[in-house]
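Obj: model holo form, ligand = 1-deoxynojirimycin.
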Amino acid sequence: MKRLLSILCIGLLCLASCASPDTTEVTSPDGRIRLVFLLDDGGRLAYQVEVDDTLFLSPSALGFQARDGVNLSEGFRLLGTDFAEADETWHQPWGENKTLRNHYREMAVRLSGEAGVRLTLRFRVFDDGLGFRYEYDVPGVDSLLLTDELTAFRMARDGTACSIPANFDTYELTYRTLPLSGTETANTPITFRTGGVYASIHEAALTDFPEMTLMNTGGTVFKSELAPWPDGIKARFEGGTFKTPWRTVQIARRAVGLINSSLILNLNEPCALDSTDWIRPMKYVGVWWGMHLGVESWVINDRHGATTANAKRYIDFAAANQIQAVMFEGWNEGWENWGGNQRFDYTKPYADFDIEEIARYARQKGVEIIGHHETGGNILNYEAQLDKAYRWYVGLGIHSVKTGYAGGLPGGHNHHGQYNVRHYRRVVETAARYHTTLDVHEPIKDTGIRRTYPNMMTREGARGMEWNAWSEGNAPEHHVMLPFTRLLAGPMDYTPGIFDILYERAKKNPARKQWNMKDSKDCRVNTTLAKQLACWVILYSPLQMAADMIENYEGHPAFQFFRDFDPDCDWSEALAGEPGDYVAVVRRAGEDFFLGAATDESARTLRIPADFLEPGRTYLARIYADGPDADWTDNPLSYEITERRVTAADTLHIRMAAGGGQAISFIAEK
Ligand code: NOJ
Ligand code: CA
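Output (holo structure tokens):
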């Protein structure tokens, strides 16, 4: 594994300035964020946070409730506090940034509770926020049943928050912008502005715990609400020890500071894999969108998408267009019962999909195949075939799999409960053993696990492109909301890049049938064409899809952007933006740069200095802009492509139509 860890400074420092014996505090390295731990007379736990000497979180409860008389929240006594500071630089095989700095001050508060309960509360405070986790040790018990988490986030002031409502089964919901005080429940990341500060609450390193959602318990006070097991228990453990995921609060002066923060990754464990040279970012196309539009089908019939002939057509297209991989859905037996009693078979291709011949053809053309495992939610059926399925794919040379969980889980389990978190983890570990990368749809939310398992490359976990095929679709603000909310958690397989925005070609196709419940005759993509290109940059995914049917790209001048685009970036920066309004992001891949900018339903022009370019070099900028008459509502296909030479001394004027965007490739001149 190519991970260089250079710990510049780590040590135990007794730097505490203790205001009273039961109050202890730690500040961020730059001193701007101050976290105070508080223990009251009843031995109850709390913390408070100040930012720039202003109260940000008022004293907020900590602890858990458990069954069988185990007390995890009161009667605690302070045993001691250990302080440490770390400043290390680490590297990852892929990511928005391949080199990251992990710089924090840690305060580990050691406590003793009733009946010998031990608790270490580990707080880490960074310049860009904070995280804390619970490490419990309950002696003399065979198991632990947690019934509630008491962790609270008591915002000192009201503010404006962007979030989706809490839901234990899906994240595919529409974002809302509401006052904090008017936000009844939220899934995380919830991003908000309060008192001139931007912040986002989420979690890191969710490996064996239910997901955390937030419930408003009055005013601007939020409390953790964990996704339960069917019997109401929130988390269960063998034995008496458990560690929670980190509860995180990212904090920034500018909204884009949240995007540029790597706090979530920094709180995850280092890479657990021996080698990562088999993992690489890829662009891909796939037999996919035709199914969602109804011109093809997953199930074998006269409209079947995953046929040998169609597969070869896609492989040819990928090989001719600098696209590394092709994905096929609906290739295996079981789609007949999708939505019913699914019994997908992961090693039985449909009769018209000659997978051995397709794999041979792909290999010959130098194209990778991304396999597909839809479970329909039947994880028991999937787990029974897990090893066999991954081994079988590897035997065919397939080292990348898209999974899916569209459907209810057996036994009434929640998608986001501990039971299923364990399942997702099992799949990541199995895939890693088979040197296979993953793209998970209907996933558990991202909490930075990719640092530990870089084969866990991308996932869905929000409303993606598919919603435009069969619903009112994603509004123009959705794409400028995602980078400030969902994508703070990690990469997203949104699957951008639909060129037939109004489905004009699909609607003319006589084979088209509606497979879905909703009348989709008025469906469309709610952006301009240029914004579709911009989304390839803005919506970071190391596996980045050009999602349209390939016939819509053939001969289209704007597809040159995807041909040039390199998803294997080394460095990224969000340059400008406001949640739900607009965003501009630049990424460097090798010597070249790619910029994506997008706006909501308002037209706007951004003035962006090109000082991210390497000084002294000249770049050929190919600019894919909205046409002067473009508008997402009635003229979404109007675009223009211009070229000019640009240096770091230039300023870009990025003009975007209503619902539009702009994409620029900066190719370094030799
Ligand atoms: C939902 C996934 O998000 C989508 O990409 C996939 O095509 C369908 N499930 C079928 O597996
Ligand atoms: Ca989905």
